[in-house]
Amino acid sequence: MGFDQYHEPPEELPATTRTFARLCASLTEEAEAIGWYEQRIAVEADHEAKAIMGNAQAEEFKHFCMDLEFLLRRTPLWREIAKGILFTEGEIVELGEEAEEEALEGAEARGEPVAGGTSLGIGNLRGARP
Amino acid sequence: MSHLLREFAPITEASWGLIDDEARERLTPALAARKLIDFAGPHGWERSATNLGRTTAIAAPGDELEAAQRRVLAVVELRAPFTIARSELRDADRGADDVDLAALDEAAHRMATAENRAVFHGWPAAGITGIAEASPHEAMALGETCELYPAHVAKAVERLLRAGVDGPYGLALGPAPYTRVLETTEHGGYPLLNHLRQIVGGPLVWAPGVDGAVVVSQRGGDFLFDAGEDLSIGYDRHDFDTVDLYLVESFTFRVATPEAAVALVP
Fold it and tell me: ipTM score here?
């Protein structure tokens, strides 16, 4: 049995990181399966076989969404960024850049240390202990 | 790479973590203004000005033309340099837990004091008017007699109410009166600190850089701090023995409602 989702010795990883890595691997597998079904459906002539594979592909997509939602629930900053990109209209790259900027500003203002951020992350102290 | 050039410093990731944590620990208790006023941003190092929404009429470039120039409040950069011995950082990497970061502690105090001072008493060279200077209410004397502080603060609150500024309020106390308040209990042993908190209905904060005390509205929208780059640590230079770093931030501050504060002078 392989443990390919781990880049580091699993025994050194905290349980939350192992779970996170499993779901990342699951997300990858679902995305691959969606792509494979898309190709199989494209070349299949039998309508009944196509329908079955279409149904299976939809299942994989549902699992993909569930994996994604799990990961976003554990990464509030990514969730904020995703909110600015998913289910929107307009230029996707632009929306992504704007969503990232706003989410980072919000996180820094709340005093949350931000990966890749350069400040001390102190920000707004209203409500902090006097 | 950011303008802070941290990657060029001869400092390990672990020591950077130690330095950043120490700075946060020293700055947070002293940043009184941020505990009482509205904070926007940080908008980043590239931010150069805050929009004031106002214009100044200027000479038009031709007949039958009108011209105006936008007015903005230029962002100021505040920087506090400090030096750390490289031997101390090497000891930190070995696991020492008594690393000498006194110079960083002093820089953090200078920085927080300067930020508080700019907000509460202004910074003319930067075009910043402080809360105490902007207030149209006549300044009241705080004095050194702690027993009278509740009466003084209550009077300040009453002035704000008369001006239509609803509570809760916050109280920024300079270091000397803050210490006096901490040391004082009223009849029955009730701490003066708690009594003052009850009067203002909001936070009471230790405010290095503040002369006397300032009672400020906490309803929001009255005092606006606009951060460009939030407090950060950058790298300047190093030699064989020491590394020169600095604390830096960029910001503007403006008072939107001058009548929402009352100053109590020492």
Answer: 0.86
